[in-house]
Amino acid sequence: MFDHLIVGAGFAGAVCAERLAAHGRKVMICDRRPHVGGNAFDHYDDAGVLVHAYGPHIFHTASRRIFDYLSQFTLWRPYEHRVLAHVDGKLLPFPINIDTVNMLYGLELDEHGIEAFLADRAEKVGHPRTSEEAVVGKVGRDLYEKFFRNYTRKQWGLDPSELDAAVAARVPARTNRDDRYFTDEFQAMPLHGYTRMFERMLDHPNIRIVLNTDWRDLASEVKFANLVYSGPVDAFFDYRHGALPYRSLEFVFETHDRPIFQPGAVINYPNEHLYTRITEFKYLTGQEHPKTSVVYEIPTADGDPYYPVPRPQNAELYRKYKSLADATRHVHFVGRLATYRYYNMDQVVGQALALVDRILGRRAETGDRAA
What are the start and end residues of each CATH 3.40.50.720 domain in the chain? Predict the structure, then answer.
C-alpha cells in the first residue's frame, strides 16, 4: 500500500516524490521511459561526452528557495548562458542588444542611441495580443523579420501573428550590452549532470521507482491513496474533449573528432535550414574531452509532447480539461503537460513544492513560482 502513486519521473514528479517521502509518505514513482529525469535526462554518449538526450537544459531561477532546495542533491557549476544567432551571414548576440544592432547595421550606438534607434523603428501597437505585435512594438519590422519570424514559424509551425504575445515576451530586447540569455540571480548547471541529481533526489527508503511502465498498468495492480500526475492532461481523460496541441522535436546528434565545433554553446539559425539551433554540450557541462558532441533540433508536429502551443483556442480547450481535473478526487495534476503551461524547469520545481505544501496541509512558502 502506497500513500501516493506519482506518474512521471521528471522535475514535477521527482520533487513531489522526494518531498512527500521526506515527510513520511510511502511513494511509488513510475515512468514509461527507461530512466529518471524526464526531458532533463543526460548521459555519456558513445564517445564519452556528456549530452542532454532531449535537447539543452539550462538551469536558472530568481528563487532562492528553489535553488537551495535543488542544492541538497547537487553541487553546481557556475554557468551563464549565451546564444548567437546566424543572421545575414554574421553571428550576432541574441537576445538583441546594443552590440547586435551595431554589428548588424555597422553602427556605433551607445545606450542612449539604441533607445532612440528602437523607438524610431517600433510600431505603435498599444496592448499587444500576438507575438508579432509584441516584437514589432519593441524593435520594429526589420529586426522582427531577421530574428523572430522565421524562427517562430519553424519552432511552432505557426506565424507569430497566430501565437500569444507571451511567447515573444520570453526573449526581451535590451538597451545595454548584457549578452546573457537569462538575467536571473541563480544561473548554474548541476556539476555532475541532471541524471545524477535526480538519482540522489529519489534515493530514499520511502520511494520505489518503476521504469519502462505505463501508469495505468500499475494502477490496476498497486494500492494507493492518491495519484500525482505529471503526464498530458488530455491523455489522462482519454481525449474526451479532443487532443491538446503540442510541438515536438527531432534531435540529430553528431560527434566530431576535435575539441570544439562552434564558437558558442548555442547558435540559432532563424532563417536557414530545417533546424532551429545547434547546441555544443561541452560549453554547458565544462567537460574536457578531445572530442565534442552537438545536437541539431528540428521542430515537428509529431512525437513526444514538449511544448504546449500558446493560442487562445488551446487555452479554452485546456479549461475544459482543467474543469475535469478539478472535479477528480484524489488526483493532483502538476507540471508542464498536466497543467498545459510553457513552464521553465525552476517554475515546475516551484509548482511541485507548492503542491506538496497543499497535500501536507501547509501554507506555501513565499517565493514559490507556481500557478
Answer: 2-36+202-244+309-359
**296: which DSSP letter?**
E
pTM for this one?
A: 0.94
Architecture of domain 2-36+202-244+309-359: 3-Layer(aba) Sandwich (3.40)
Measured between alpha carbons, how far is 192 from 50 in angstroms, rounded to an integer? Answer: 9
pLDDT in tens, the chain (371 residues): 999 999 999 999 999 999 999 999 999 999 999 999 999 999 999 999 999 999 999 999 999 999 999 999 999 999 999 999 999 999 999 999 999 999 999 999 999 999 999 999 999 998 999 999 999 999 999 999 999 999 999 999 999 999 999 888 777 789 999 999 999 999 999 999 999 999 999 999 999 999 999 999 999 899 999 999 999 999 999 999 999 999 999 999 999 999 999 999 999 999 999 999 999 999 999 999 999 999 999 999 999 999 999 899 999 999 999 999 999 999 999 999 999 999 999 999 999 999 999 999 965 444 333 33
342 Cβ contact partners less than 8 Å away, ≥ 6 residues apart: 166, 167, 307, 308, 310, 336
Q: How far apart are CA 232 and CA 305, in angstroms?
A: 8
